[in-house]
Write a structure and sequence with these properties.
InterPro entries: Adenosylhomocyst_ase-like_sf (IPR042172), Adenosylhomocysteinase-like (IPR000043), Ado_hCys_hydrolase_NAD-bd (IPR015878), NAD(P)-bd_dom_sf (IPR036291), S-Ado-L-homoCys_hydrolase_CS (IPR020082). Keywords: Cytoplasm, Hydrolase, NAD, One-carbon metabolism. Belongs to the adenosylhomocysteinase family. One of its GO terms (biological process) is one-carbon metabolic process. The protein is an alpha/beta fold and about 425 residues long. It has two domains: about 5-180 and about 345-395, Adenosylhomocysteinase-like (Rossmann fold, 3-Layer(aba) Sandwich); about 190-340, 3-Layer(aba) Sandwich (Rossmann fold). The chain contains 17 helices and 15 strands. The protein has helices at about 10-20, 25-35, 55-65, 80-90, 105-115, 125-135, 150-160, 175-200, 215-225, 240-245, 255-260, 275-280, 300-305, 340, 350-365, 380-395, 405-410, and strands spanning about 45-50, 70-75, 95, 120-125, 145-150, 170, 210, 230-235, 250, 265, 285-290, 310-315, 320-325, 330, 375. Helix 1 (about 10-20) crosses helix 4 (about 80-90), helix 3 (about 55-65) packs parallel to helix 15 and helix 8 (about 175-200) packs antiparallel against helix 15. The longest helix is centred in the middle third of the chain and has 24 residues, at about 175-200. It is globular, with a radius of gyration of 22 Å. The N and C termini lie far apart (about 70 Å).
Amino acid sequence: MADIANPDRADAGRARIDWALTEMPVIRDLMQELAREKPLQGLRLGGCLHITTETANLARTLKAAGAELVLCASNPLSTQDDVAASLVQHDDIPVFARRGESHEVYYQHIHAVLDHRPQVTLDDGADLISELHRSRPELLATMIGGTEETTTGVIRLRAMAADGALQVPVLAVNDAMTKHLFDNRYGTGQSALDGIIRATNILLAGKTFCVAGYGWCGRGVARRAAGHGAKVIVCEVEPLRALEAAMDGYRVMPLLEAAAQADFMLTVTGDKQVIDTAHFEVMKDGCVLANAGHFNVEINLEALEALSRGTSRPREHVQEYTLEDGRRIRLLAEGRLVNLAAAEGHPSAVMDMSFANQVLGVLHLVRQRGKLTPGVHAVPTAIDQQVARRKLAAMQIEIDTLTPSQQAYLASWQEGT
């Protein structure tokens, strides 16, 4: 069973998946190791993830480990249809994902994965596990746990836990150091700008670029935009992050003030209605709006529609809204994840570490079955360290080790001045 758009593109998808694997040495090594050991033999896995070349290599690895895996998309515009076709036809992994699927079909696909009765879920945004709790609670009895890939999903899971709704343990893969320090910063930094540039082909140098949110993703975007020659403004609500942005050399100001100056505005906050009516009313003619947060709620699209007298589509991923006074506001990728909707998502080299955490996280959940309490759990430091060591080895980088004397010194308190 599967629901994909273009079965005839399977060979093209396989070529791109194999290309991505050349930049994923940690996943490649894990795939080979786990194929020999089969530690997940017979385990039912359900994944709600972006169906990309990198995700395909994660899926291949989990199947090589013996798991029975079914996938759906975690965003209606992030599916790469050739990749979905390849997974179905060449790897015999059921996939329920079509690029551009409707809201209704999106949730039909989530339920198709839940019909597989997964013992472990892999999420990017927490849609799968939240829907399981909301409408399929009978599946909880056989659940071992889940993993969560992204900041937005971890926020949702912690809200579920605070409400007493989360009934299984979930590993916050997003919070692993080898994930958020690299995937969020370097991955989003490059891929978000890649999406903006592909969608618009507008030169960034000399333009004013506003980044709303200065978490690890925002830090990465700001740094890359500055590298392109843009004049970067950062908008924040957290004083420590705002202070850091200022000391990193960026202008920091309220979003309403920035909206009147910006040529580009990118949201990466994980919150809703960050850019709203008041901001649209002061934006420059031709301002480009994009979102790199997980859900398409960061830009108030209904408010933008209400202010507009008409829309046009001058380029594939650009919807141009003409306001009553004639100003044009250019929205990219329908306000969805611009790096996946208008480009190809994060580079494989950073997803290598993120998905290594996913694989090792699933193994950890299985080995700790029955020992972890319901709630959001940190990825064990040992897994983080293992991923970092494997990545360094793949990059042929060697580091020093402490001597026994140095270790003893760090563990003692008696030696002083």
